[in-house]
Amino acid sequence: MGKGILHYDVGEQIELFLLIKSATKGTASNGKPFLTLILQDQSGEIEAKLWDANDDDEKSYAAQNIVKILGDVQSYRGKSQLKIRQIRRTGPADGVKLDDFLETAPLSIEEMQSELTQYIFEMKNPNIQRITRHLMKKHHKEFMEYPAATKNHHEFVSGLAYHVVSMLKLAKAIAALYPSLDKDLLYAGIILHDMGKVMELSGPISTVYTLEGNLLGHITIMINEIGKAAEELGISGEEVLILQHLVLSHHGKAEWGSPKPPLIKEAEILHYIDNIDAKMNMLEGALERVKPGEFSERIFALDNRSFYKPVFHK
Amino acid sequence: MGKGILHYDVGEQIELFLLIKSATKGTASNGKPFLTLILQDQSGEIEAKLWDANDDDEKSYAAQNIVKILGDVQSYRGKSQLKIRQIRRTGPADGVKLDDFLETAPLSIEEMQSELTQYIFEMKNPNIQRITRHLMKKHHKEFMEYPAATKNHHEFVSGLAYHVVSMLKLAKAIAALYPSLDKDLLYAGIILHDMGKVMELSGPISTVYTLEGNLLGHITIMINEIGKAAEELGISGEEVLILQHLVLSHHGKAEWGSPKPPLIKEAEILHYIDNIDAKMNMLEGALERVKPGEFSERIFALDNRSFYKPVFHK
Amino acid sequence: MGKGILHYDVGEQIELFLLIKSATKGTASNGKPFLTLILQDQSGEIEAKLWDANDDDEKSYAAQNIVKILGDVQSYRGKSQLKIRQIRRTGPADGVKLDDFLETAPLSIEEMQSELTQYIFEMKNPNIQRITRHLMKKHHKEFMEYPAATKNHHEFVSGLAYHVVSMLKLAKAIAALYPSLDKDLLYAGIILHDMGKVMELSGPISTVYTLEGNLLGHITIMINEIGKAAEELGISGEEVLILQHLVLSHHGKAEWGSPKPPLIKEAEILHYIDNIDAKMNMLEGALERVKPGEFSERIFALDNRSFYKPVFHK
Amino acid sequence: MGKGILHYDVGEQIELFLLIKSATKGTASNGKPFLTLILQDQSGEIEAKLWDANDDDEKSYAAQNIVKILGDVQSYRGKSQLKIRQIRRTGPADGVKLDDFLETAPLSIEEMQSELTQYIFEMKNPNIQRITRHLMKKHHKEFMEYPAATKNHHEFVSGLAYHVVSMLKLAKAIAALYPSLDKDLLYAGIILHDMGKVMELSGPISTVYTLEGNLLGHITIMINEIGKAAEELGISGEEVLILQHLVLSHHGKAEWGSPKPPLIKEAEILHYIDNIDAKMNMLEGALERVKPGEFSERIFALDNRSFYKPVFHK
Amino acid sequence: MGKGILHYDVGEQIELFLLIKSATKGTASNGKPFLTLILQDQSGEIEAKLWDANDDDEKSYAAQNIVKILGDVQSYRGKSQLKIRQIRRTGPADGVKLDDFLETAPLSIEEMQSELTQYIFEMKNPNIQRITRHLMKKHHKEFMEYPAATKNHHEFVSGLAYHVVSMLKLAKAIAALYPSLDKDLLYAGIILHDMGKVMELSGPISTVYTLEGNLLGHITIMINEIGKAAEELGISGEEVLILQHLVLSHHGKAEWGSPKPPLIKEAEILHYIDNIDAKMNMLEGALERVKPGEFSERIFALDNRSFYKPVFHK
Amino acid sequence: MGKGILHYDVGEQIELFLLIKSATKGTASNGKPFLTLILQDQSGEIEAKLWDANDDDEKSYAAQNIVKILGDVQSYRGKSQLKIRQIRRTGPADGVKLDDFLETAPLSIEEMQSELTQYIFEMKNPNIQRITRHLMKKHHKEFMEYPAATKNHHEFVSGLAYHVVSMLKLAKAIAALYPSLDKDLLYAGIILHDMGKVMELSGPISTVYTLEGNLLGHITIMINEIGKAAEELGISGEEVLILQHLVLSHHGKAEWGSPKPPLIKEAEILHYIDNIDAKMNMLEGALERVKPGEFSERIFALDNRSFYKPVFHK
Fold first, then answer.
1. Considering CB atoms only, which of A25, A29, A215 is closest to C28?
2. Residue D174 buriedness (CB in 10 A; 0-12 / 13-18 / 19+)
3. Which of C144, D192, E51, E149 is 20 to 30 A from A15 (CA-CA)?
4. Which has the minimum average pLDDT: A262-266, D147-151, D165-169, E215-219?
5. Where's the HD domain (chains A, B, C, D, E, F) (predicted)?
6. Chain D interface includes B300 (CB < 8 A)
7. Beta bridge partners of A80
8. Cβ contact C259–D227 (<8 Å)
């Protein structure tokens, strides 16, 4: 599809198909309505304003439509903004489809599935293995497609599965260095820790929180799921309680959403692994957009810090 | 049984049957072992030291035994302490039994049961009523006997049921003043909010935390219970989610153990009612032991404050 | 007066008399001046922009004027906004008056006065009763008319008296359940706790802080008033000190404005009662504007939470 | 009186008259009572244990008695402790009197009085001057004798007046460098800021908090005093309000006891001056007891820090 | 140069030469570009919008250019704003130069230099004196010209030197009142404490942070400088370590940027002196712009407080 | 040497050579002196009391002496304590030497040295490599022998080098999973991050803080060292600044001692790696002392949590 929207510099003209991620109506200070469009392709997203938007525009340029745009990349308050010269909705003749515009995980679902199967296969404790396999099967489709969050990190199609697979690899490497770690617990804890997101979030695109997500949250939802799985499988050992504890405590502190802090060694390490993979994802995302010798945009979930790319990192 | 241990003043001599609540062995600074006994009757408890305790003493004066003591009430660091002159273990001939020494709720189990039944009966929403009744039935025995906590407030036999009944009365009065409140939700939320304690705590006496209590806590345990109850009863309406939210949020804030804050009006009010009844129980307990014109002992759960009893409160 | 401004839905056209609560001049991004008007009637308030406002407009449409407006209710950033088609200032011929546009307490001043008199009459301690009656008499007019705050809760004409009467009813109900509470102290504490607002705030409408309010605050002001009252009445018992303490500590913590936390049982309960009535007022206000199945606007003073109205709350 | 108790090193034998500052009874781990005595002379204080203390000892060696002691200075957990060999109560024949054992300000009451008079004399604003003079006169005796606190800083006889005089000198120096400061306000604020301590504290020796001190605190007490003074003097200008604000805000922040932070330039500076003089007093006290190259004892009110005395500070 | 821009009231017309401090391009809500200009002369600065700015305008009205403006002072959200009627860039014929528009310290560089020399001359400890003199010489030019900060306080040409000279005078006055203070340490600590700013900041005008400033900060930079100076001078006594500690700890707390809190008496006092001079500078700056009886703008670095100027401060 | 002291259960009798780690004199409540001895061998340490200790005992049983003890392992407040029956100082005839009693890293100095050499060898950036090699050479002896801390983690001989080697392995594994990481920076940052401890701490045994450690801390000390190394090697590229930043920021937050937070990706990851290795060391240390189904002692540096060892972890 040629160069993505994120790779155009300020001052360049673009002529691109873009997906409308969201469209919000506003009233300009001259009293006329306008639309704020967030436009995206697989390279990332950009904001654009459509001035003097009438009712037809509002319908034509709603979220999830694909448009063809002729315009200029400008700078506004230090961020890129698209100045629209021409815009039109696409039709069948344009030969474009939704999937071409969505950011997705760098691994295919098949590759990730194969990794996950292997890690579950390696588990030696049958109770832990059966519960994990049961829940993976139950939520399989959503688990492979949902993002890991609505923003901050892994906020793309299949982001949840990709985050989990990356954590599993990290866990394997760490467990090799500290052999006292129970790999079964680590692997199962990683696979289950965010699985509740398939009920907390609405789906892979235009993701919002469900009512259950708002009132209970993915941690509490998942504790229930583990409880039900154990009952259905007739498993009652301490493993059930420990797996629930791993999920319950993975945010690390009460004020971060875990009513119990980690009280098992593997729960503590799971919290660290989750943190490293999430932060690496944010850091790589922010730094790939800057040149050596520059500071990145501020990253909210990293205490709003702006990171520097050394000049010798050419 | 005559005057309780708490009603003796410093300087008085006592000759009483007392229950050993706990016995901890220590080594005195002269190298000899001693026992720290917490002795109780229904009026309250007092500490005593048994010096030069040998191995037989350690066995005879273990927790849950009833002893007969001759001694003097003394003052040590501003608290009463019992100086033991004579101590002996009781036998069948003494005609004393465990129940006579345990602090219990001021209402009988029958009275409280009758109140609870009435409140459940008054519920109009059948889903809410059925779930509440089901869980009350399932955990009935423990619910009527357990304390509400190991310390701080309602830490006596049947303290949990007494706390719940007091809260229900308070809820009824408040709902009469603010008619927009949903009484069904309030009553059900109150009955269920601490019910998980029957699994978090070990039992009505010498209460400690269970492993499940340590690793999950009564809130998470109870969310599971409501989920299971709904499944068994075939109820799937929004009421299930809302009841789980009421329990989940009743500590008010993440740092106090609720991963979601109250997001329903009745959840917010439930948190206030819980707070008022717990704090009134602490305040009344602390102030009944001081005379007008004096300050109470410091109350840890009230920010370690010491409360004053006005002189005109004779 | 027909349907209030708050009861029109987005898309509806209105033709209404409205009171200008505030008018702020701004410069549009095209360099021309405009007015931001907050318009109100007894149902609530709505924002409107008056574009291209000249100097005459600025004078005509100043705060406290009543206008007749023809316009459309629109949505702007999730809040309703009024698009003005025609606006004119009203004159005597329109037969409208200020009082018809002000939100006031749901009870009349006479009803509230009668309640207050009764509660003071019930006090048994003559010192407490005389001080309360003296101060009520001294500040009577303002006490019955002032709001309880400039925003957040009870921010309407007679809001202060209404808040106090609601708290008194709550106190009566609570004292019936916990008989150890001193009703005289509770009632007097409630009547006096916010009375300093009649000096902290400027008046019942377009309320702002006075210099005394800014530099001392209503709590400190009221401590002085109680001291003076006691001196004038020749009362010197511990009751004076305790009443001052009740007022001083009613915000509960130093960081919330009480240099001493509650150190009297009734002071602690007064703080809870104040909290419940204020929060119920906010919650009811926010939730009456949403439909079942929706979340309310964020409520700043409730940690910026958005509350959910269950679907079964039809 | 020879070398003071603080100037004896560990290992030295002493034979001294000492004042009993406090005496607390305890029970040793062998079951026998003992007394913990805090003994003082003008150089400072030291702890001593009197083992196997009988009832007569308890009476003889109560607080405020002067004793003659033969003993050894020992080290216990890094602090000096006195091992008592012989102790006896003194009588008229010993020719010792209370005043000889109390730590007092390094300036005489006459000197401090003269300084205070001069600063009040220099005030140009008659309202400020009259209120200050009136209150100084009203509380004169206590103001000249009370300590500034029960511990931490200026905790000696006439400590309050000494602290105020030191602050006045500091204010004069600072105002000379920043001429925009209003010296009248600064001087009056300094003289009045802690004057409420004469009602908050019980007296110059064995100082404890009064009930009024506990329930209201010296800041609130003093606001009342300024209000009364203004009324008695018939002064009603903004100066009254500003003086009350200076006192109210002098702790700087709500969580440190000032319900309003400084909102006047002189109030802000008053807070800094108070801080500097209090901290200098603590630092000098702690450092005069250590040798160059050593760290001082931890100073609780300075975040529990231990300060180093450089080797080149011989 | 006549009346400065800050001394014009809202409503007045101006015709002035002004320096463009910064110029930021924006897009108006009608889609057209505009420039936000911050214009300054020695009296202070004002914001102005230049609507419909074309590319030529963007070049002509860039930062550091001097312009002649005809316009009106207006009020926008409580702050003054300049409405531009005519604007033109100046040329040699206008006879204006950069220095005439920059705010500078109220003392000349020569006066400040002479003060600094005198304070260094008074030092008695040769190690302290030599290190201070060496570093002062090394960074002399920048030290005399840099501001003390990019905003908040002493943010003008030579602000750093002026801040240091004011602190030295304050130190002299305080040391006279507390003779135990080591004047050498105080003076050297004051001169060195912020000297690292000559490497942390980019220069005297349009000041931004350097990379070294962002990644290390002026405190760490200066520790290095003292270390190097000592090495070059062959000084190795405890004085080096103590001077480094004075600089390291001068922000007072870890969360304010000092990894070690003050652990030397003079370090503690240095922190207070720094604070007083910085805050006095902010307070005087904010209050000179308001009339008696008014509140100042909010001062961010003083907890966002707004300060009141008493009516009797005419 | 047979079974270590830590492997004896309560109730067992021991006859062992032990090293006195520390000896503190106290006064028993009967007035007689005693010694609190911390005794250690390579398995760990235990506390013992030596009652009625005379002056000779104090000299014989000072720290760093090896003693032979006959005694019983007892339990005191949940911790093991040694009851001494016989104790005697050892002499040459006993054939025991200091090294046999010290806990040391599980890898030999040679093994660790070889690992370190290899990691430095792998660095590709010559500036980074040269600085690292230079500093490693300069502080080689101490770096290989010092502990990583006085308590909490890696508090044993060669603990610093062992901690660094473990972190390097972890870094290698993580960098393999996230190839965007600069391995040179990570490896150099890890080797240098705590090297300042060789000046902050006093040595490998009986470790305390040096004056430089107290007043500057290991981070600030090391920044200086890197600066000096670069100067000596004539290196001036951005690498010097970045290496200083890595060391400066490795505690992650200002309140944890890093005046600048990580602003380079590798600095952020270095902080996580440091954390994981330190916490794993604490967790393994605490859990190896408990049996499956038990909770560990509380670990202060892990928020005082007590960790559970699952029953299925046999």
1. A29
2. buried
3. E51
4. D147-151
5. 163-279
6. no
7. A75
8. no
3-state secondary structure of C298: strand
Distance CA D56, CA D50 (A): 12
Distance, CA of E230 to CA of E130 (rounded, Å): 9
DSSP E strand boundaries for chain C: 13-27, 33-41, 44-50, 66-76, 79-89, 295-299, 305-308
Structure tokens, C7: 């009861």
Confidence band of F1 (pLDDT split at 50, 70, 90)? very low
Q: What is the pLDDT of residues D196-246, one digit of tens each?
A: 999 999 998 878 899 999 999 999 999 999 999 999 999 998 999 999 999
Under DSSP, the state recorded for C237 is S
Average pLDDT over residues B269-280: 97
Nearest CA-CA partner of C308 in B246, B126, B43, E138 = B246
Parallel, antiparallel, or unpaired for β A305-308 and B13-27? unpaired
Q: Please, is E44 exposed, middle or buried when counting C-beta atoms within 10 Å of its C-beta (0-12, 13-18, 19+)?
A: middle
The answer to whether A180 contacts F275, with C-beta atoms less than 8 Å apart, is no
Q: What pLDDT, on a 0 to 100 scale, did the predictor assign at position A304?
A: 94
Which residue, D196, D299, D187, is CA-closest to D248?
D196
Task: Give tens-digit pLDDT for D116-152.
Answer: 999 999 999 999 999 999 999 999 999 999 999 988 7
Confidence (pLDDT) at A31: 64
Q: Give the C-alpha separation, A252 to A267, whole Å.
A: 9
What residues contact residue A37 under an 8 Å CB cut-off, 6+ apart?
A20, A22, A23, A47, A48, A49, A50, A61
What type of residue is F284?
E
Burial, E110: exposed, middle or buried (Cβ in 10 Å; 0-12, 13-18, 19+)? exposed
Helix, strand or coil for residue A142? helix
The length of chain C is 314
Task: Quote the CA–CA distance of D313 and D101 in Å, as a whole number.
Answer: 30
pLDDT tens across C165-185, in order? Answer: 999 999 999 999 999 999 999
Q: Which domains does chain C have, with CATH numbers?
A: 5-100 (2.40.50.140), 109-282 (no CATH)
Judge contact between E312 and D239, C-beta under 8 A.
yes
B76: Cα separation from own chain's centroid: 26
- What is the distance, to the nearest Å, from the Cα of residue E109 to the centroid of all Cα atoms in its chain? 15
State how far the Cα of E125 lies from the Cα of D94, in Å rounded to an integer. 50
Choose the closest CB to B308 out of D25, D31, D215. Answer: D215
SS3 F14: strand
Of D176, D239, D305, the CB nearest to E263: D305
Partner-chain contact E76 C211, CB within 8 Å: no
Instruction: Single out the residue of B227, B226, B197 nearest to residue B213, CA to CA.
Output: B197
Find chain C residues with C-beta within 8 A of D264's C-beta.
215
Token pair 């000899």: residue: B32
d(CA A131, CA A188): 9
Instruction: Give the tokens for residue E287.
Output: 């209050």
The secondary element (H helix, E strand) that includes residue E97 is none
Tokens of D138: 């009203």
Helix (H, G, I), strand (E, B) or coil at E260: coil
Q: What is the DSSP annotation of D265-296?
A: HHHHHHHHHHHHHHHHHHHHHHHTTS-TT-BP
Q: Is the pLDDT of residue D1 over 60?
A: no
CA-nearest residue to D310 within chain F is: F211
**B77 pLDDT exceeds 70?**
no
The residue whose two tokens read 């944010």 is A282
Question: E77 pLDDT exceeds 70?
Answer: no
- Is the Cβ pair D178, E284 closer than 8 Å? yes
Residues contacting E117, CB < 8 A, separation 6+: none
pLDDT value at E159 more than 60: yes
Task: Name the residue among C169, C185, C302 with its Cβ closest to that of B177.
Answer: C169
